[in-house]
Design brief:
2 copies of one chain form a homodimer. With 176 residues, chain A is mostly helical. Helix content of chain A is 63%, strand content 0%. Chain A is built from 9 helices and no strands. In chain A, helix 1 packs across helix 2, helix 2 crosses helix 3 and helix 6 packs across helix 9. The interface between A and B is large, with 49 and 49 residues.
Chain lengths: 176, 176
Amino acid sequence: MLAAARRAFARHAYADTTIAAIADDAGVSPALVMKYYGSKERLFTQVFTFDADATALFDAPLDGLARHMVLHLLATQRGQTRDPILRIAFSRHHLELGGQARANFRTQVIDALAARLPGPGAPLRAEMAIGVLLGLGALYATVQADRLTQLDPDEVADLYVPLLQPLLCGEAPTAR
Amino acid sequence: MLAAARRAFARHAYADTTIAAIADDAGVSPALVMKYYGSKERLFTQVFTFDADATALFDAPLDGLARHMVLHLLATQRGQTRDPILRIAFSRHHLELGGQARANFRTQVIDALAARLPGPGAPLRAEMAIGVLLGLGALYATVQADRLTQLDPDEVADLYVPLLQPLLCGEAPTAR
């Protein structure tokens, strides 16, 4: 049911989405969806909660964190197209509730990463690192970039670690 | 009318979008929209054409291109929220026509940038550079990241030029 809800909210605005359509896609009755989630709004909140995905995305020691994040992102892309963070891109067409989705993202993803990072300017560097990952996810899942999608995950990691790891370790330039 | 169409296709799936709603948002009659664009599909194609935006985004000499791209992206974000490239993120909820939008993006944005870049692996580096910009656009317009959005555009450029310019000049690592 949650997978069907993710698909629905990725493809249709909140106002255009119905419990009936989600239930139909999941192969269950609307009554069952309501029994588990209670309302469309609560189902939306479940879809735009990032805690579990962030825990998996950041589950590595600091010196291997950039590589882990890239490989984890690609593994989820190539698997069930369940990118851990990219669905925030769809919050823009949920006018009514997008603000809550974005607040969850800032707290559960960006602040959680910033808390892991040493050095000055950790919150800003966490934002930039997550931005690089969002861009990589967009190249894969959305743009379907010709060259990048043909590389092995390890090759993509080799390309992205030099961009990401300095942001994580505090070697990148900080704002004036 | 085109601005209204951009808003509509950013918020609703192609199948959920109507000429009547776009005309209403633009303050014109549906007949006028049809007179200018002929069909919903042709209007969609206009929204997901990137030629003019790419020309403006890449309109700088190579040694200042990274800074120009960042400043241009931020200027359009802060202005009329008309990011030159981020609307590709919404192609995912236009199942029927998203493929055409993505093909336009790869040709008109990525290939156009690659043609400007010296050194080996230019197409791959162009993809990565556009990915970094998509991530920056997402941090601004979608996530609304707390720290980055408070900086002056020049400060954001100072942070992103070290990530972007090596990709443009061919100094970044290339795939094995």
